[in-house]
Design a protein that fits this description.
Elements: H1 3-9, H2 13-20, H3 34-50, H4 61-76, H5 85-100, H6 106-109, E1 114-120, E2 124-129, E3 132-135, H7 143-155, E4 167-171, E5 177-181, E6 191-195, H8 204-210, H9 215-226, E7 231-235, H10 241-249, E8 258-262, E9 274-278, H11 292-299, E10 306-309, H12 316-324, E11 332-336, H13 340-352, H14 360-370, E12 373-379, E13 385-397, E14 400-409, E15 425-427, H15 434-440, H16 456-461
Parallel strand pairs: 7-11, 7-12, 8-9, 8-10, 10-11
Antiparallel strand pairs: 1-2, 1-6, 2-3, 4-5, 5-6, 12-13, 13-14, 14-15
């Protein structure tokens, strides 16, 4: 069968996906049709001819687009003679997107329902949708093809990945977080993980409608932020800590100077006076590294009203505690932990990573006096992400930091007809000590927010 006849028979969505790479990238024999072979040959010819020009910083995006478009026609050559003008245009457009974009993962980057993309070498691509992992049929053409995509991502933000530096954290132009690790550290081939950046960031009402929090919790968080309490957001990987941190940051008054410090910029604050700082790895010679800790120390000289550390994961925890204890109130950060109590233990360990020989009691006293509130978020078995604990840091009893649960999730409510947790986060009935502080500042909380009212109406509103 001629190539143009095959194309006409396959003008379905499946055929278009094949041309994009969903099928072309596969190595299954059933997909080795002339169209797929033409696309592979054209791409390889272009990569061989263009080489380093694809990463030439002197070329603007428009110039590179025109340059690649001109070269595609020549690379396709006589092989495309059996195609119609429209078929050549569509195939050329798809090849151009593949070369200038991010290969077979581009379609998932364009899909707003996909929240994470996981590439396990060239043979396997998984995505996360609605909190669930899904195996896809898409693949890269080869290990070299995957490496080219990784190189395109990291060079775009001035970073590198090679045998001397086989791990890298980077971000895409839209802010999506990228992690790549290559051999020899990754035994089975290059691994690429992309956590997508929300173009339209979630607001507090979105989290309420999704069931991540209730209106009472939202009111409490807003009062805590406006009252300049120091807040730690804790949770496991992929639970939505940064999303929640972004929502909490939205409660900061517009007339305050905010300094954000992150490994890769993710926070999307809409206040007028925001300074965004981003860490930098060392260069090829092993010089020029600027760590989160360096940025935290520098931020203290920038007259901040608020300091927001995207994630505390090392020695910067010590400088952050000192800042919170020396007048920089209302600071926010996130910590990887399974429970609020674990978050405090992890913070203590991170302070020790600063290389300062401090007794454990002194560290715990710093932590207990620095933080006022811990908001813990969990990714549930049903795929949803919910705030499950809100705890007040009370102080010290002997050598132990004491905390008290203000809100906790009702796991005993069981499941609804869709298999989702039917419970919501409920007040424990304990009134926190900081409530009087908020009252002194003129910040009023709804009546009964710390009591144990009937939340059945909130249960209905708090689900999708």
């Amino acid at each position: 069968m001629k190539l143009n006849e095959r194309l006409r028979l396959k003008h379905s969505e499946e055929a278009l996906q094949a041309a994009r790479g969903d099928v072309t990238e596969s190595r299954d024999p059933e997909h080795n049709d002339p169209l797929a072979q033409l696309k592979v040959r054209t791409q390889e010819a272009l990569f061989a001819k263009l080489g380093a020009r694809l990463y030439d910083p002197s070329l603007s995006a428009d110039e590179l687009q025109r340059f690649v478009a001109d070269e595609i026609a020549g690379a396709m050559g006589a092989d495309a003679s059996a195609l119609t003008d429209e078929e050549r245009r569509v195939l050329a457009s798809q090849i151009r997107d593949d070369i200038l974009g991010y290969g077979p993962v581009q379609m998932y980057l364009d899909d707003p329902t996909v929240t994470e993309i996981m590439v396990n070498a060239e043979e396997s691509i998984y995505i996360e949708r609605d909190g669930k992992l899904i195996a896809t049929d898409t693949r890269f053409m080869s290990r070299q093809h995957l490496r080219r995509v990784i190189d395109r991502i990291v060079t775009g933000v001035g970073r590198r990945v090679d045998e001397s530096s086989p791990m890298v954290d980077a971000r895409l132009a839209d802010g999506s977080r990228v992690n790549a690790i290559i051999p020899p550290l990754s035994v089975d081939g290059p691994i690429l993980t992309i956590r997508k950046f929300a173009h339209d960031p979630f607001q507090v009402q979105d989290l309420i409608e999704m069931g991540s929090m209730t209106r009472l919790v939202a009111d409490l968080c807003e009062a805590a932020v406006q009252g300049k309490l120091n807040i730690m957001v804790s949770g496991g990987t992929g639970t939505g800590k940064t999303t929640l941190l972004n929502v909490l940051s939205g409660f900061i008054p517009d007339d305050e100077r905010i300094v954000t410090i992150e490994d890769a910029v993710e926070l999307q604050l809409h206040q007028r006076h925001v300074i965004r700082l981003e860490s930098r790895p060392s260069n090829v010679e092993g010089r020029g590294e600027v760590s989160i800790r360096d940025l935290v120390r520098n931020s203290l000289r920038m007259r901040p009203d608020r300091i927001i550390v995207g994630e505390a994961r090392g020695g910067e925890a010590l400088d952050m505690l000192q800042a919170m204890n020396t007048g920089h109130e209302g600071s926010l950060t996130t910590v990887h932990a399974n429970t609020p109590r674990d978050a405090l233990s992890r913070l203590e360990t991170m302070v020790l990573m600063a290389g300062v020989d401090l007794p454990s009691r002194a560290i715990r006293e710093q932590i207990s006096s620095a933080f006022d509130l811990i908001v813990h978020i969990t990714r549930m078995r049903d795929g949803s992400r919910r705030i499950t604990d809100i705890a007040e840091v009370v102080g010290m009893e002997g050598d132990t930091i004491t905390i008290q649960e203000i809100f906790t999730f009702d796991y005993k409510a069981g499941f609804d007809e869709d298999g989702r947790f039917a419970g919501v986060i409920r007040p424990t009935g304990i009134r926190p000590r900081f409530s009087e502080h908020l009252k002194d500042l003129g910040i009023e909380l709804p009546a009964g927010v710390f009591g144990a009212p009937d939340l059945s109406s909130l249960t209905k509103k708090g689900r999708k």
